[in-house]
Amino acid sequence: MRRVLVVDDEPRIRAVLRGYLEADGFAVSEAADGDAAVRRLRADAPDLVLLDVMMPGIDGLEVLRQLRTFSSVYVILVTARAEEVDKLVGLGVGADDYVTKPFSPREVAARVKAVLRRDRGVRDAGAAVLRFEGLTVDQDAREVRADGAPVALSALEFDVLAALAGAPGRVFSRRQLLERVWGYDFFGDERVVDVHIRSLRARLGDDAANPSLIATVRGVGCKFVGWPA
């Protein structure tokens, strides 16, 4: 049974989401504020977090920043205003999707299922360990090393890297990466792909202007350009 943590300061919203998610077979836990969320995340290690942005005390973005220091769990941010999505996407805060209030609980449950249904390995038949000059991607252990040092990636960042590195030289459009990594029924903003590509480059130390690993093909998409080891 997959586990979902619902973090929101409104009891009614937590109750509604719990009802829909449990009806779909998920085990659901709750947290009413940021401090409680961080404690539960460390204790329970859920498969996905539904995280409200605006909460008293520690807000959702700070919870996410703390979370990313010790976990790559999938995170769907819940925000009160549609226009905030542009800001969140631009910030590249490490979330995997965004939902705006008011929302349909059925849509939220569908997004949760879409994220958790896909194979987190996202790999083609072939070698489980992809080796390139200065980079190793272990798809079974879900570990990445750059110049021998471990690189901490979120679940989605790893999946994007595995998809690109699994097909070196192939150009992927945003839509193709969404279909391959997020799944065909992804509901969110296509720009989330750009956020994860930028984050990957930063974490891998790859210069967008002079890339050695991930190159942008203007007007088309991006491709993996690392040399095989």
Note the main attributes of this structure:
globular, alpha/beta, 11 strands, Rossmann fold, five-stranded parallel sheet, 8 helices, four-stranded antiparallel sheet, 229 residues, Arc Repressor Mutant, subunit A
Would you kindly provide a written description of the structure presented here, covering whatever features stand out?
The protein contains eight helices and eleven strands. Mean pLDDT is 84; it is low at 119-126. With 229 residues, it is α/β, with parallel strands linked by helices. It has helices at residues 11-23, 34-44, 60-67, 84-91, 105-117, 155-165, 174-182, 192-204; strands at 3-7, 27-31, 48-52, 74-79, 97-100, 129-132, 135-138, 143-146, 149-151, 214-217, 221-224. The strands form three sheets. A five-stranded parallel β-sheet has the order 2-1-3-4-5, with helices on both faces. The chain has a four-stranded antiparallel β-sheet with strand order 6-7-8-9, covered by helices on one side. Strands 10-11 form a two-stranded antiparallel sheet. The chain has two domains: 3-117, 3-Layer(aba) Sandwich (Rossmann fold), CATH 3.40.50.2300; 129-224, Arc Repressor Mutant, subunit A (Orthogonal Bundle). The chain starts with a strand and ends in a 5-residue tail after the last strand. α1 crosses α5 (105-117). α4 links the parallel β4 and β5. The protein is globular.
Layout of SSEs?
Blueprint: E1 3-7, H1 11-23, E2 27-31, H2 34-44, E3 48-52, H3 60-67, E4 74-79, H4 84-91, E5 97-100, H5 105-117, E6 129-132, E7 135-138, E8 143-146, E9 149-151, H6 155-165, H7 174-182, H8 192-204, E10 214-217, E11 221-224
Parallel strand pairs: 1-2, 1-3, 3-4, 4-5
Antiparallel strand pairs: 6-7, 7-8, 8-9, 10-11
Helix pairs in contact: 1-5, 2-3, 6-7, 6-8
